[in-house]
Structure formats: structure tokens, C-alpha cells
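I am sending you the entry underneath: sequence plus C-alpha cells. Let me know what the C-alpha cell row says about the fold:
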Amino acid sequence: MATVKFYNTNPVVTSYTDYYPFGYPMPNRNWSGTDYRFGFNGQEKDNEIYGEGKSYTAEFWQYDSRLGRRWNLDPKGEASISLYACFGDNPIMFSDILGNTIRNGYKYLIDRTEKLITQTGNAKNYYETQYGLSEDMSKKEYIAGGGKRKTWTEYRKTLSSLHGYQKDLAYYNERFEVTQKIIGKWAKKSDFRGGHGRYDESGKVANKYGHLKGNKPLSPIL
């Protein structure tokens, strides 16, 4: 993962990091030119405890990226999985932005992009209603009709952003479906934690109360 900033339209890499599964930075494969606060999955780094990238914090957890284990109990714990587990023990398929809800990682991107599409779509509708603009109207035609160059430019930027978000959403939906199929196959082929629970295709623990095929609920396991 890399962080890129733009200075006078020139892209500059300010940091890059290769991670082990739960976010521990690989030695000699990371660099940062700034004191950037965030790391794996956007989690805030808490370097004062163990050192660079070994501990992360969010609203509902503090966890050790070397162990993939949280310090506190999961506030929304599921049956058949340790209350100290992170990302459902599978950070490749799942994300947990705040430390309280396991999700298909692409679902977060889909939700965020849909909000951006709604906001940008509202802005597009405003320009079209207020200034009589349309997607097929040329700049020359709009200005000849008494429109301002600045308004046309802002409208075209809004359109460009909207089309970009729509393209992103199509990609995220495609990857979401692929991930869901992987989750489904994984759930069918192997029991989670030795047969005491399974993930369903929504990324939740299907056996919420621990009663799958006669299995009894387990106490938390580290």
C-alpha cells in the first residue's frame, strides 16, 4: 500500500508498506517520509506501545497486528469465535473499520461510493435545474446562451466525478460478488473453528447461538 500526494500536479510518494495479514509491516519493505498516523485498512497506528505498526486502534478496539488479537472483548461478539479475534480470523475476505462489525471488505467501499454518487448526482441535478445545463451541451453553446464559463467548468467537473464514481461502483460490485462466492465456497468446504460455526454468504457467523448440527456454544478461545 502506498500513500501519494500531489504537489503542483506532480505525484509524490510519501509512504509505502507491505503488510503481513493483520497489518504488521514487513521488515525492510516499508518507508515513510512523514509522520502519517494511519496504516493497515485505515486503522490509526499506536506506535508508542510496541513500535511502528505493531498496534492499531479504532473506536471499539486496540489490537496487536502481529497476533491478530484484540486487547478488549468484541462488543458485538459472535458465537463460535473468540471474542478476541480480529477480522473473523480472515483479514483477506473481511474488514472491520471500527472494530465491532465484520463485513465483506467491498461492502464498505460500495456503501461509501453509493453515498458519493447520491451527493454528486444531487449537485448535477442542481446545475441542470438552476442553469439549464445538460450532458450533451457544449461549452460554446452554453456561453453563447449567456452562461458563465465558471459554471460550465464546475458542472463538467461534477459530471466527471459522477461518472468516475459510477465506474468505481460497478467494479466494487463485481469484486463483492466474487468475494461472496469465495465466502460461500469456503463456508461449505470447511467448518469455522473445527466445525463449531460457519460464515454465511453475508460474511456473518451463520451459527449465531452456536447450535449448528448439534454443536454446543463454545466459550471464548484466544
Notes: The chain has four helices and nine strands. Residues 149-189 form the longest helix (41 residues). Residues 192-222 have pLDDT under 50 and may be disordered.
